[in-house]
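Subject: sequence -> structure tokens, single chain

Hey, anyone have a minute? Need the predicted structure for the following. Not urgent.
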Amino acid sequence: MNTGSDRGTNESANESANESASESANDPAGTAAKDSGSGQEAPHVSKAPDFIKARRGLHLSWQVGVFVVGLAVIGAGIAMLVLPGPGWVAIFAGLAIWATEFAWAHLVLRWTKRKVSEAAQKALDPKVRRRNIILTSIGLVIAGALIGFYLWKYGMVLPWNIKDQ
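Reply:
Had a minute. Here:
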């Protein structure tokens, strides 16, 4: 099972690094360096200690442990979406735990970070802020009107104590 996290220990990763180093040495203009700096990251490498990565069975056990811990944190985060607690923070923390070991989780976490920063930039747009303030104000006025109508009609009686009125 190749999860992409043990790529740093494979021969192919070392060969591709050696090829790129030889290309940049043979290229006096430096065009290979420009291509490698075009936003491409180094391949995802497992954050497990070297003595664990050296043994296949131990590394697989490490990955299962990381998966279980990340799953537990994400499960707690999902529960905290409806219960008191920082649900989204826990979900992102579980995803970060997975990203230490799995390449797919690293890609999902990077995509999520990019989308969150785009949303934050969009929220800072004056037109969007004005629209959000107007919608919030309208919602508060409607909620206030509903609460006022309830208090006018029933007073301070809780709904489960209302008799046939």
